[in-house]
Amino acid sequence: MKYEMMIREIIEKIGGKENIISAYHCATRLRFKLKDDSRADEAGIKGVEGVLSVIKGGGQFQVVIGQHVGDVYKEMNTLYNLNGENTELKDAKEFKEGMKDKKVSSRLLDTISGVFTPVLGMLMATGVIKGILALLTATGILNSADGTYQILNIVADSFFNFLPLFLGYTAMKKFGGTPFLGVAIGASLVYPSIAVIMAGEPLFNVFSGTIFESPVYVTFLGIPVILMNYAGSVIPVIIICYFAAKVEMFFAKRVKDLLRSFLVPALTLIISVILGLLIIGPVVSFISNLLGAGVSALFELNATIAGFLYGALIQVCVMFGVHWGFVAISINNLATLGFDPVTIAGLASAFGQAGVVLVIMLKTRNKKLKSTCGPALISSMFGITEPCVYGVTLQYKKSFLLACIASGFGGAIIGAAGVKQYIYGVNGVFGWLQTINPAIGFDATTAAAIIACVVSFAAAVILMMIFGKDVIQDTNR
Fold first, then answer.
1. DSSP state, residue 18
2. How far apart are CA 73 and CA 52, in angstroms?
3. I need a labelling partner for 253 at 20 to 30 A (CA). Which of 36, 136, 207, 228 fits?
4. pTM, entire model
5. In 191-247, which ranges are E strands?
6. Residues 291-301: b if buried by 16+ CB within 10 A, e if exposed
7. Which of 73, 72, 67, 98 is nearest to 85 (CA)?
8. What residues pair up with 60 in beta bridges, in sequence order?
9. Dist. CA 235–CA 290, nearest whole Å
10. CA 23/CA 12 separation, integer angstroms
11. pLDDT in tens, 294-328
C-alpha cells in the first residue's frame, strides 16, 4: 500500500485504534474524534512524513494530509477495519460519551461538521455543474428551454433539491440513530404530494396579521398543518432527526427483540414525521428564514468592513475548524433566500494565499520548499488552500498574515459590490461561476468578484515584495 507506513505511524501516535471514537475526512484532512486527546502525540504526528499539520478544534483532532486524503482514508479503512465511508458513532451511548465533556460550542461545531462534511463534496460538484450551466446560458450557448439544458439541470439540481434525504442520513448517523430512518424522514419532507397539496386553495390562514401568517391546506386529526417547501432545506431535517434519534433510542430499550426490527422504525417514523410536519418543521423553518434574513441584514450594515473582516479571517477560521458555522449559514441562506451574500466574501482568500506562495516560490533558494510551492499554488487557484497554508505560509507566520490582509482587500470589494453566490460551489477560479445570477446572467457583481480575486492576488505579491523580504531570508536558512 502506498501510504501504509504513514498511516501506521499516525494511528500509533494518535493513541492506537482503541483511542478512536470516530474518523472521517474532508477535502484535505483526516478528522478524528478521540476518547482521550492527551494520548495523542501531536508533535510526533506533525513529524510524520506526508503530514502537513495537526489541528485541534471543534471537538476534533485533525491531521492535515492534502488533496490525496481520500486515498489515505481508504487505505486506513482497509488496514484498521474502520468499516465504511464515515465511521461515526455506533450507538447513542458512544455519542453521549464522546460529547459529554466538551463545551457547548465544541459540540455544536462537531455536530455541524459531522452532518455536513460527508455531503460537501457532492454539493461542490453539483454546484460547479450548475455554475457551468449558468455560464452557458448567460453566453447564449444553451437555452433554458433546450432538452440538453434540462437534462444537465437535472444532474446539477437534484442533489440540492433532495438535500434533506442526504442530511437525514448523516444527521441520524451523527446522533446515534439508524441512518436510513433519517433518509425516510428526509423523503417525507420532500414527498411530491406536499407540493400538489400546496398548489390548491388553502382552507384558511393561521397567525393572520403577523409575520408568521401562513395558509393551511390540510389538517391532521383536526389540527392545522402548516406545510412548507422543504426542498433544499437544511435545519428542519437535522432538528427532526435529532428528535427521531431520541425516539428510536426510547423504543429500542423497551420493545422486545422479536418485534424490534419493524416496530421501532415504524413508531419512530410515525411520531417524528407527524411532529416534524406539525410542529418542528414549521417552527424551525420560521427560525431558518429569520436567521438568513438576520445575517444578511447584519452584513448590509457595512458590507465593505464586513467583507474585509470575513475575507481576512476566513483562513484563520478554517485553521481552527470554526468555519463550519459559516458553512451552515451559507447553505441555509441558499435554501431560504436563494442566494448567500456572506461566505462569498471569502472567495478571494485562495488568491491571497496563492500570491504569497508565488513570491516565495520565485525568490527562495530552498529546493524542497520550491517544489512544495508549485503544487500548492495550483491547488489554491482551484480553491484548495490547505497546501498553501500548512505547507508554506504558516511556516513563516508573517507570510500568512500578509496573505490574510491581501484576502481582506478582495473581501472588501466583494462586500461593497454586493456580490452574492447563487449556488454552493468551490473557491478559486471555479468560484466565479457561483456569482452568475441564474435569472439574468452576467452582471456587475460577477465582474466585481473576478476583480476582487485579481486584487487580492496582486496585493499579496506587492505586500510580500515590500514587507516580506525577511520571510524570503528565512526560507533560505
1. G
2. 15
3. 36
4. 0.74
5. 204-206, 214-216, 218-220, 223-225
6. bbeebbeebee
7. 73
8. 57
9. 12
10. 15
11. 777 777 789 999 999 999 999 988 777 677 778 88
